[in-house]
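seq:
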Amino acid sequence: MGGARLKWVASLAKVGMHAHVYLLLLFVMVVWGASFVAARMLLYSDGPDVAILTPTMLATVRFLLASALFLPLLVRQQLRVRSLKWGDIPTFLLLGQLGISLYFWLQYTGVQLTNSGISAVLVVGLIPLATMLVSGVTLREPFGGKRAVALALGAVGVLVVATQRGLQVALESGFLFGAFCLVCNALAFALYSTMIRSVRGRYPSMTITAGMMIAGTLGLLLVSIVSEDWMSVAALSTSQWLAILYLAVVCSVLAYFFYNYALTRLEASQVAAWVYLEPVVAMALGATMLGEEVTVQTAIGGAIILGSLLLTHRS
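struct:
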């Protein structure tokens, strides 16, 4: 009895020691959950007088601002340590396209064609499952029966969420295409998460984050110079500029820093579990701020995806 009490007291002491980390993680999940709402404000409008951005333009502006903050840090680190090797630059360029340019183009296209709540459910729910599938195929990681069941269950959850408007393809809204982009979005991040293992043991997290973000921004910039109308940026309202600054500074710089800090204090699985709060935040804010409808079918599909993730964790 005494041993159990001592263990309970020790657990409480450990929780107290990491209380500030838990508060930071709560902040990060609220910030990232709200990012779907902020993106929706810039990608979709009900009125003719409100300016909107294309997914490529929004991603370009967001990461130009974020890279402007990361670039001095990367240059300073390189001058002091000279850690970045020339032979790894192609890897960073590819990581940037998978983790930034392609990833956010797919995500913002999905947000534009569906809504912020559904986007959060599909992105957050599918990334762990897609990563498990990609790493199992490319790295030959163990892939048992429970994981196969978890994948099938996750696919059912995605189908429930994506077809809440029926199985007919609504070409005027592009809803199903938006859901398809969100599924591909998860696959792109799974490829990124698998490939980053080749460099994460040789570079500090700041170098990896800054390097891939700047590389992805260069890719977005090249595409947007050729295909985008930059005058659309000048037409944005003050509230929309605040949303972009929120995405760039709070979501892309500050939240990533806090998340990486938490990874140095807690186990990775403990930190990753907090990501499941994102869809809850996105749905709540989308309903209150944008008037989005939270349907029973969306909630059921999200619960199925969460169940598949829990099964994956147990396996």
